[in-house]
Predict the structure.
Amino acid sequence: MTNIVLQTKDLTKVFGSHKAVDSVNITAYEGEVFGFLGPNGAGKTTTLGMALGLIHPTSGEVSVLGEQVTPNHTHALKNVGALLGAPAFVPYLSAWDNLELVAHLTPGVDKKRIAEVLELVGLTDAARRRVGKFSTGMKQRVGLAMALVHRPQFVILDEPTNGLDPAGMREIRQLLRSLVGNGTSVLLSSHLLNEVQQVCDRIAVLNKGRVVAQGRVDDLLNAQKPTVRLTVSAPSEAAQLLRALPGVEDVHPNGAGSLIVTGVDSQTVMNHLIHNNIIPTEIISQKSDLESLFMDVTNAN
């Protein structure tokens, strides 16, 4: 059986009259990159804060690596790395020196490991430069190095590609997959849905404090309603006909002569239009992606 690295049970946090996290149940497993998604204000940061022992739950519980975590019980976190929000470092020290400070707090981290993790995040050439002079993307790399330097079993990362260019984002994607390949499980919180779709095995989507979707990325996308884009010479007439077609959930314009149809496949759309003497000049099945799933589940709740 695959071990669980993070599990919440009816996890709830109330601030005054505001329920920021509402009976959240999520499970992340060993050997995967688990995506944690949601719009601003959905409760993601509060949930992660409780997982890292920074915030007391109002009710429910959160366990990390098989142990319950609270601000008074953080033993499991010795095997966890985290980059939550902007990374903290001493700006007048170099990247190397900042990692040495972390090493002094962590048994078993030597100079060899510092060199390894700097190479891992692509900072070997900048290791002796002052961190305060780094770009935003380079500072993110320092934060990631700090999260990884003690060889954690589980890493929680909040927007780790912030400030990185496309090449840097690709390097971080490759790094996350290599971490999993070497036995480190990852929870990734990000607004970059295309990045999440490329790197995550499973996801949970939070909205208004509640989980509105959870599961394997492929399974969730395959469960999405089919979407078809077509071009016709009489879009208004075609739209009226398609809205009457059983199974169609939505028809809306998409530019001159173009329509987006949701709920039925392209063959059904084409057969219906041809039967009514309208011949599409173009018809394309649109592949479901994480962005469309995200918009569907967050707008519906």
The two ends are 33 Å apart (CA to CA).
